[in-house]
Automatic annotation (TrEMBL):
Keywords: Signal. Residues 18-45 are annotated as: Disordered. PROSITE patterns: PROKAR_LIPOPROTEIN (PS51257). Residues 1-23 form the signal peptide. It comes from Rubrobacter xylanophilus. This is Lipoprotein.
Length: 450
């Protein structure tokens, strides 16, 4: 989990939904209120000091937008820890908290719950979180400091996304569809209303911009897609526009964020690029705007690919990009190898039966990548088509296969969240529709908090 320099973060309620360049966006949430349950955990709520340096947690894994996890786990060998909640969870974020892990769950009605899991014993402690309630459906970003747990927000920010820590404050999307900086001023950028701002290792920030309805697909929560990626760089007085990236096909970028990754020492952006009549392809762009490499279009209109993660998936540890082709129809997990000389992305392996997105949902974060079992290389972890199991997909010389599965015990209702603790051990959490948070990674016998 990436750590940044301390700074003051306003932790106020998220504001109302933003407007777009062309028309108001559709509502971005499932504000289904869950009743209080008598089986909710009777755990005392406290505020615990965890150390001086902030740690951050995002629904999309790393600040780069790459859904990867640092550290090493033993998920298939661990016993899951179940925590009963007061309602259906929609979002989870986590962060290291001293020697322990902290988790924040946002329920369907906007209530926010914080938990600390003690690293050795697995004891559960309820933690206070600021604010204690947000607009239903709003995605969270977590800051864990010595003063406790806060969700990053500021008055006037979009309820379809969250700001990020940047320089000495926050950078985010406002409710009026502009980029904002607090303190200071942001460059003139019109992002998608639900755009996630993602940061590279060198400190450049990329955001989908130029909302348009010219690509009429609308499977990600509204009818808006991006005409460009705006790349920002740190300047003397905040951030400046460095470059704009536009689809080489003349189409759109279909998603809520690009994904930064490093190949051959070069920072690159992976995206889903869609065009009329041919559907989607996985494409890689240089932050200066040039197309670096691209895979084939699906070849059929309104067929989407979901770019998930870039990492050393290949049997020899080579970099590959993982995506799901047509997650709403007959989903197929795809791994792409970068052919730098030819400027192409080649499909190196596929596997059917696993998916990553429900049609119409703004949750694009139901997959993670990393070394989840400490055995042989990386796995891609994502749900099967029933959303009741998580499958670990591992590359092999002859393709890709399922290495092992995790049983959810119910139907998935959240993103997948991860935390790597101070010892380098990783944990993964998922929420269920029946109001249970399940966490894997701790050694010992199964526990069920009541």
């Amino acid at each position: 989990m990436r750590r940044l320099l301390p700074h003051l973060v306003a932790a106020l309620l998220l504001s109302c939904a933003p407007t777009s360049e062309n028309a108001p966006p559709e509502p971005g949430s499932r504000p289904e209120t869950m009743p209080e349950q008598t089986s909710a955990p009777a755990v005392p709520e406290t505020t615990v000091r965890a150390g001086a340096s902030p740690a951050y947690g995002y629904t999309h894994g790393e600040p780069s937008g790459n859904r990867v996890v640092e550290g090493v786990g033993d998920l298939p060998g661990s016993e899951p820890l179940d925590v009963r909640l007061e309602g259906e969870p929609l979002w989870i974020v986590g962060a290291p908290f001293g020697e322990d892990t902290a988790w924040v769950v946002v329920l369907a009605d906007g209530r926010v719950r914080g938990l600390r899991i003690e690293g050795e014993s697995g004891e559960i402690e309820r933690l206070s979180v600021e604010p204690g309630r947000i607009i239903p459906g709003a995605p969270p970003a977590l800051e864990a400091t010595g003063d406790g747990l806060r969700l990053l927000s500021t008055p006037g920010s979009s309820s379809l996304t969250h700001p990020i820590p940047a320089a000495s404050g926050l950078l985010g999307v406002s409710e009026n569809g502009r980029l904002f900086a607090e303190p200071g001023e942001a460059p003139p950028v019109r992002p998608l209303p639900d755009a996630r701002l993602v940061e590279s290792q060198s400190g450049r920030i990329a955001v989908f911009s130029g909302p348009t309805r010219r690509y009429k697909h609308g499977v990600l929560g509204d009818g808006l897609e991006a005409k460009s990626i705006t790349v920002l760089k740190p300047g003397r007085e905040g951030y400046e526009i460095a470059d704009r990236v536009r689809p080489e096909s003349g189409g759109v970028f279909e998603g809520i964020a690009p994904l930064w990754f490093v190949s051959g020492g070069e920072e690159l952006l992976a995206v889903t690029e869609s065009a009329a009549g041919v559907g989607s392809r996985v494409a890689v762009y240089e932050p200066g705007g040039a197309l670096f490499a691209a895979g084939p279009f699906i070849g059929e209109a309104m067929k989407w690919r979901h770019v998930l993660a870039a990492g050393p998936f290949a049997p020899g540890g080579e970099m590959e990009i993982a995506a799901v082709r047509t997650p709403h129809l007959s989903p197929i997990v795809e791994f792409y190898r970068l052919d730098r000389a030819a400027g192409r992305l080649k499909v190196s392996a596929t596997l059917a039966g696993y998916t990553s997105h429900r049609i119409g949902a703004r949750n694009l974060d139901t997959a993670l990548a990393g070394d989840f079992d400490g055995q042989s290389g990386w796995e891609l972890l994502l749900p099967d088509t029933s959303y009741t199991r998580l499958g670990a997909i591992r590359r092999a010389q002859n393709g890709a296969g399922m290495a092992w599965t995790l049983t959810l015990g119910g139907e998935l209702s959240t993103n997948l969240a991860s935390v790597t603790d101070a010892r380098g051990r990783l944990y993964v959490a998922a929420g269920r529709e029946d109001g249970v948070l399940r966490i894997w990674g701790r050694e010992g016998e199964a526990r069920d908090s009541k």
